[in-house]
């Protein structure tokens, strides 16, 4: 049994921790969005990879969700004195990770290899795989033009109104060859932002096809509960895109994604076959089922470690029960 978990951001990492607690490193692979990556201060910054790594290492800042707990900020203070850019906060311990990743990359190692070295150094045994070792960069389209993701998310604090997204480099990126699609028996799309954390992962050529070829059921966990995103700008983005910030709309977003049809056509088979709804949104279950998705209801808001583990168990039962039968 091999479970594939597609994740990005802080919300996705929470469920990944639950999955890592119930599945051995042999039974799960975490595939992480790298669309948020950027070059900054001479470092290759890979926020979603690092957020997951710190989370699985129990080293993540429990309040922010990103960066390390127990950080000090002397580097940032000194950089400020010297007139450097400090809008993107790198803690002193986090800086060490960036120095090591830069060394690995400069030595010709892939992002995957660098990530494995760092994860090992932090005692993480589970496999953390960037979606691709080739550069894919999310750009957020706004009325005033495109913004690199971290400029939108951190520098401009998600304030600009979004009109769309694109993932520079996705078309020519190779899917991470270390993803064992042929062994995959179930796929979890974690409760991450569908537009800027999940879509970039699915935009990598070969990702959707690899998942479909595995014949495995694919279940997505709603990142929207009762019309609000637990964390981050998902609800705001949906409103700006003119769709209601509801769990049904997220289900529609996933139900519409097909694989195998000619580019731009609606052909092909649906990629996502099941959807996990929060107990608050039980009244939406019928609408989601009408989209052709199997559903299950759970507590998707994860406050404690037990919540993370409980949701992981619900998702695995949902997959195992074939409730999200892999379809034709
Ligand atoms: N998010 C912020 O809101 N402010 C920051 O200063 C910031 C710094 C940062 C440094 C390293 C890292 O791995 C993540 C960091 N993040 C910061 C979070 C990051 O921008 C987001 O978590 C992802 O890009 C989207 O989820």
**Coarse shape:** globular
Please trace the helix and strand order, writing H or E for each element. Answer: EHEEEHHHHEEEHEEHHEEEHHEEEHEH
Q: Give the strand tally.
A: 16
- What small molecules are bound in this structure? ligand FO1
Strand order in the sheet with the most strands:
5-2-1-9-10-15-16
Radius of gyration: 19 Å
End-to-end Cα distance, whole Å, is 21 Å
Percentage of residues assigned to helices: 25-40%
The structural class is alpha/beta
Main sheet properties: 7 strands, parallel
Give a written overview of the molecule.
This protein has helices at residues 9-22, 47-56, 74-81, 92-106, 111-121, 149-155, 194-203, 207-214, 234-240, 247-255, 285-290, 305-320, and strands spanning 2-7, 28-32, 38-40, 43-45, 127-130, 137-142, 145-148, 162-168, 184-189, 218-221, 224-225, 228-229, 258-260, 268-270, 274-278, 294-298. The chain is α/β, with parallel strands linked by helices. The radius of gyration is 19 Å and the shape is globular. Mean pLDDT is 94; it is low at 322-328. The protein binds ligand FO1. Ligand FO1 binds at residues 9-10, 36, 47-48, 50-51, 66-67, 88-90, 94, 150, 153-154.
């Amino acid at each position: 049994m091999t479970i594939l978990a597609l994740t990005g951001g802080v919300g996705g990492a929470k469920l990944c921790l639950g999955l890592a607690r119930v599945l051995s490193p042999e039974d799960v692979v975490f595939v992480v969005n790298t669309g948020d990556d950027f070059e900054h201060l001479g470092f290759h910054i890979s926020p979603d990879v690092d957020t997951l790594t710190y989370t699985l290492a129990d080293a993540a800042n429990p309040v922010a969700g990103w960066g390390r707990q127990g950080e000090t900020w002397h580097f940032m203070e000194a950089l400020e004195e010297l007139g450097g850019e400090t809008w993107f906060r790198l803690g002193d311990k986090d800086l060490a990770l960036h120095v090591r990743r830069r060394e690995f990359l400069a030595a010709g190692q892939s992002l995957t290899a660098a990530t494995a070295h760092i994860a090992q150094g932090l005692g993480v045994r589970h496999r953390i795989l960037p979606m691709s070792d080739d550069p894919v960069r999310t750009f957020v389209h706004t009325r005033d033009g495109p913004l690199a993701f971290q400029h939108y998310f951190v520098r401009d604090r998600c304030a600009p109104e979004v009109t769309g997204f694109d993932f520079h480099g996705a078309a020519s990126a190779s899917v991470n060859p270390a993803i064992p699609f042929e062994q995959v028996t179930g796929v979890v799309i974690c409760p991450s932002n569908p537009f800027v954390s999940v879509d970039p992962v699915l935009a990598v050529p070969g990702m959707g096809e690899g998942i479909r070829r595995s014949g495995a059921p694919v279940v997505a966990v709603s990142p929207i509960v009762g019309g609000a995103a637990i964390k981050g700008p998902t609800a705001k983005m949906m409103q700006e895109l003119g769709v209601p910030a509801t769990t049904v709309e997220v289900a529609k977003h996933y139900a519409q994604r097909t694989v195998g049809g000619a580019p731009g056509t609606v052909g092909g088979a649906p990629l996502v076959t099941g959807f996990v709804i929060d107990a608050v949104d039980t009244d939406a279950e019928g609408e989601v089922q009408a989209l052709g998705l199997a559903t299950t209801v759970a507590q998707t808001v994860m406050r404690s470690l037990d919540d993370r583990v409980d949701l992981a168990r619900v998702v695995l039962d949902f997959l195992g029960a074939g409730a999200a039968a892999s379809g034709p």
